[in-house]
């Protein structure tokens, strides 16, 4: 699961008012090379919750992103490459996503998060 995906997921359990961002529990991280596309990154920047991305990348062992970012940084090739690596090349292969409010764990196996809810959680 890419951090791009993580940045768009939240816990939709019944009664949860703040299910974002899901906390990451890491068992295995893999890096998969993806072609660098600065235009895609510039378009995605406004859609990404930066703090959630920066925190998640640190949890997955990548501490190169700044705590805060703004659009002016998109002119830097160095920044774009770090953003690209965190957003698209880091993959949570095995682990879990945890609801920040309830502690409910959603397993991630072979890079696929299982966000299915039990009947009593809907």
Automatic annotation (TrEMBL):
One matching Pfam family is Trm112p
Q: Which GO terms describe its biological process?
A: rRNA (guanine-N7)-methylation; tRNA methylation
- InterPro entries to which the protein is assigned, alphabetical: Trm112 (IPR039127), Trm112-like (IPR005651)
Question: Which GO-annotated molecular functions does the record name?
Answer: protein heterodimerization activity
TM segment ranges: none
Q: Which SUPFAM superfamilies match?
A: Trm112p-like
Enumerate the CDD domains for this protein: Trm112-like (cd21089)
Provide the assembly information: Interacts with TRM9.
Family the entry assigns: Belongs to the TRM112 family.
Name of this chain's protein: Multifunctional methyltransferase subunit TRM112-like protein
What's the source species for this entry?
Answer: Rhamnella rubrinervis
């Amino acid at each position: 699961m890419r951090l791009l995906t993580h940045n768009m997921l939240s816990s939709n359990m019944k009664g949860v008012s703040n299910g974002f961002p899901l906390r990451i529990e890491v068992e295995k991280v893999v890096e998969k090379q993806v072609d660098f596309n600065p235009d895609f990154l510039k378009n995605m920047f406004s859609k990404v919750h930066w703090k959630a991305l920066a925190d998640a990348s640190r949890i997955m062992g990548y501490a190169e992103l700044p705590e805060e970012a703004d659009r002016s940084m998109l002119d830097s090739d160095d920044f774009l490459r770090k953003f690209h690596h965190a957003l698209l090349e880091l993959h949570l292969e095995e682990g879990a996503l945890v609801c920040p409010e309830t502690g409910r764990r959603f397993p991630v196996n072979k890079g696929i998060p299982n966000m299915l809810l039990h009947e009593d959680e809907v």
